[in-house]
C-alpha cells in the first residue's frame, strides 16, 4: 500500500464536527493526489465550512506533514450537502419581477406574514440591495445586527416573529449602497452562509432585485433548488419585462410556481365597480407564456391600519394574501 493510500485511510478517520460522522461515512474527501514535488492536493467538503475549516485544516496538516512526512499540502474546502436523517431543511422561495415598482417587496412581506398566520416559521432575505425596503415595510429599526459566538448574523425580528436579513442593516440610515459586483457577492454569501436562523425555520422568502443580473446568479449558486414566484402588474409593459425575468429564472434552473398580478384594479366603492387603472391581462399573459399559473390578483388597497404596510385579516387584501399563501404551499 502506497504512502498516499495510507494517508487517505487516516484522513477518512477524521470527524466532521458538525455532522459527528467520519470523513469516510459522509464522503468528505472528494479528491487526493500528489504532485511531482511530493506536495499533496486535497479537496474536502465540510458541513459547516466557515466554523470548522480552521481546525480541520490543522488536523489534516499534522497528519500529512508530521505523521507521513509530506513537505506540503494544498487544501480546497467546499460545502457538504450531506443531510442527517433528522435534519430539518429550509425551503427557499424567491420573489422576482421584471421591473421595479410593481410591489414585489410588499408581496414578499405580506406573503411572509400570511405564511406565519398559517403556522409556519418564516424568514426573509432581502437581496434587493439597491432598492432595499423590507425593513421599512416591517417597520424595523435600521441598526446593526447582533452576532452569535460563532460570528453568525442573528436576524432582526418583526412583531409577527418573522426573521429578516437585509442590506439596510449594514448601512447608515438613508445612505445609498454603491457597491460593485464583487462586494455584492460577498454580502450575499454572508446572507446564505452566515446567518443563525431559528432551528425550526421552515420557509425563507428571498426578495430579489428586479430583472436579471449578478444576484440572481449568486442566489442560484447558493440555493439551486429554490422555486420562484413572479410579480407583475397588469400593464403590458410591466408584463413584457416580467416575462424576461421568468425566462431568465428558467434558464438558470429555477421553477416558476406561479404569477402574482399586483395592483390589478381599484375597487370603486362609489359605483361598486373595479377600475383597471393599469390595464388588464398582464398577469394572465405572462403566466400563459411561461406555462405557469396566475395564482392571484391583488387590488390597489390601503390597510385598515394606515400606520402599517401589512394587511390584517380584516383587510380584503389580507384575505387574498392568506389565500395566496395556501396556494404557494401547495406548489412548494
Automatic annotation (TrEMBL):
Residue sites binding ATP per the record: 98-105
Coiled coil: none
Molecular function in Gene Ontology: 4 iron, 4 sulfur cluster binding; ATP binding; ATP hydrolysis activity; ATP-dependent FeS chaperone activity; metal ion binding
Keywords: ATP-binding, Hydrolase, Iron, Iron-sulfur, Metal-binding, Nucleotide-binding
InterPro entries, per database record: Mrp/NBP35_ATP-bd (IPR019591), NUBPL-like (IPR044304), P-loop_NTPase (IPR027417), YlxH/NBP35 (IPR033756)
One GO term (biological process): iron-sulfur cluster assembly
Gene3D superfamilies documented for this protein: P-loop containing nucleotide triphosphate hydrolases
Keyword ATP-binding in annotation: yes
Domain of life, source organism: Bacteria
Family: Belongs to the Mrp/NBP35 ATP-binding proteins family.
Assembly behavior: Homodimer.
Role description: Binds and transfers iron-sulfur (Fe-S) clusters to target apoproteins. Can hydrolyze ATP.
Protein name: Iron-sulfur cluster carrier protein
